[in-house]
Design brief:
alpha+beta, six-stranded antiparallel sheet
């Protein structure tokens, strides 16, 4: 699974968060080098942030959060999740923002088999930006999971 949230700005100054969810299926070899997944092997796109005011491409990326995990790990929800699933790894990734808050970006962290890459242009609160992108990514993941995405994507 490759889940990315990008805070983008177009040429007129309008800003928006774009989120994309990819899966790798049987191609588990992609995860042997998880840091290369975003550029070399993102996987098959299964969910994006539609509709958008700002079309993708040609925008400035102000900040991005990449989450890379095995499809099975990435699709796993908390067992008590019923109507509204949430990923078991959400709390761990929320703690990354607090732990890394004083560190310069990019942050590259591995939490229980979930790889996190976060980078942002200098801004007053990098931690708030991280939390904003993580919330957008988890919301996209939850919509995918709720629609049966964990069972065959």
């Amino acid at each position: 699974m490759y889940l990315t949230a990008q805070h983008v700005r177009n040429h007129t100054g309008e800003e928006e968060v774009h989120v994309y969810l990819h899966v790798h299926g049987a191609d588990s070899a992609a995860l042997k080098d998880p840091l290369s997944v975003p550029q070399r092997n993102p996987g098959r796109l299964v969910k994006d942030s539609s509709p958008r005011r700002i079309p993708p491409g040609g925008n400035t990326v102000i900040a991005y959060l990449d989450i890379v995990a095995d499809d099975v790990i990435g699709a796993g929800a908390h067992s008590e999740a019923s109507a509204d699933p949430y990923p078991w790894w959400q709390a761990a990734l929320e703690s990354v923002g607090k732990t890394m808050s004083r560190e310069p970006t990019p942050w590259v962290v591995d939490v229980a088999g979930v790889h996190v890459i976060f980078s942002a242009t200098p801004m007053p609160s990098v931690t708030e930006e991280y939390e904003r992108l993580l919330a957008a990514a988890v919301a996209r993941w939850a919509r995918w999971r709720k629609q049966g995405g964990a069972h065959g994507s």
